[in-house]
Write a structure and sequence with these properties.
alpha/beta, Isopropylmalate Dehydrogenase, 2 domains, 12-stranded mixed β-sheet, globular, binds nicotinamide-adenine-dinucleotide, binds 4-hydroxy-L-threonine-5-monophosphate
Amino acid sequence: MTAAPIALTIGEPAGIGPELAAAAWQRLRGEVPFFLIGDPTHLPDGTDWVEIAAPDEVRPDGTALPILPHPFESPRIPGKARPAHAKDVIAVIERAVALAASGKAGGVCTLPIHKQALQDGAGFGFPGHTEFLAHLCDTRDVVMMLASPALRVVPVTIHIPLSEVKLALTAQLLETRIRITHTALRDQFGIAEPRLAVAGLNPHAGEGGKMGTEEQTLIAPIVETLRNEGFHIEGPMSADTMFHAAARETYDAAICMYHDQALIPIKTLDFDRGVNVTLGLPIVRTSPDHGTAFDIAGTGQANPSSTIEALRMAWQLASGSA
Ligand SMILES: NC(=O)c1ccc[n+]([C@@H]2O[C@H](COP(=O)([O-])OP(=O)(O)OC[C@H]3O[C@@H](n4cnc5c(N)ncnc54)[C@H](O)[C@@H]3O)[C@@H](O)[C@H]2O)c1
Ligand SMILES: N[C@H](C(=O)O)[C@H](O)COP(=O)(O)O
C-alpha cells in the first residue's frame, strides 16, 4: 500500500523543531515522504526548502524540504517560550489533522509544543497533543505509547498530577487502555499475540496489601479477566524490577499506572530513539519523545534521531508496513 506523505507540524518554533525538521529531511529524503507545516523563515539558515500548495506536490525524488507555509505572526527567538506563537502552533496542528483525516496526508508527526506557552498565549485547554488530537478526532479513548527498540510503554493515566492518579485510575480506564494497546500491537505493529506486562501502582506491587491495595482490588482482577479471554498478560508486577534487560525480553509492552513510571525507563534507556505514538485515533500520529529543549535551541546541537524514528514509524503505520 502506498500512503500519502506525512504532515510534520512545526510545534513551538522557539524550540528545536525547525532544526529537527531540516535535519530529518536531510536524512530521510528518498526514504520517507513528508512535508512540514510551518513558517519557512524559522528554518536554519541555508536550509533548502520548496513551497507546496498541497501534499500531493511532495515528490519522491525532491531535493528540498517541502513546506506547506503557515506564516507566524511573531518572529522566532530561539530558546524563549513565546505565548505569542500559541495561536499559530495550534492552527498548524489543526491543519495537519484535517489533512490526515481527509486522507490527503498519510498521518501526522508532531514536533514538540510548549504546553505552558500554549496555555498562556491561547488558553489551550489540553495538557498535550494526545488529548488535543483525541478532541480534534472526536475520539474519547486514546492511548499514549512510547516505543523504542528497547522497550514499549503505556502510561494509563497521562498528564495529571501525581496526587490525582489514585482517583483517576479506574477499572474502566485500565481495561480500555489495555484493550486499545493490545489491538494496536496486533493490527498495526504486526505482533500476532502481544505479550503485556502490567505494573503495580505501589512499591513492591503492594507487598500483599501491606503497601497499598490497588493491586488486589483493581489491577489483578482486570489482568485475570483479560487472561481468561486469551490475552498473554502478566501482573501486577513490581515496577522497579520489570524494566531490566531480562525482564524486558518477556513482554512487548509495559502497561504503567502513571506518566513517569512509564516514561522514565524508556527515556533513560533510549532517549535518542524513542517515539511517542498515539493509539486509538482514526489517524496515524507520532512524535519524537522529547520536548522543546529551549536550552539548546538554535545552537545546532539538537539530535534529530528521535524525530527521524518518529517520521519512519508514521510512514510505516500509514503504509501498513510496521
Ligand atoms: N511531544 C511534545 O510536544 C513534548 C514532549 C515532551 C515535552 N514537551 C514539552 O517540552 C517542554 C520542555 O520539556 P523538558 O525541558 O522537560 O524536556 P526536553 O525534552 O525539552 O529537554 C530535556 C533535556 O533534554 C535535552 N534534549 C531534548 N531533546 C533533545 C534533542 N533532540 N537533542 C539533544 N538534547 C535534547 C534538552 O536540551 C534538555 O537538557 C515542556 O513544555 C514539555 O511539556 C513536549
Ligand atoms: N508526555 C510526553 C513526554 O513526556 O514525552 C509529552 O509530554 C508529549 O505528550 P503529547 O504527545 O501528548 O504532547
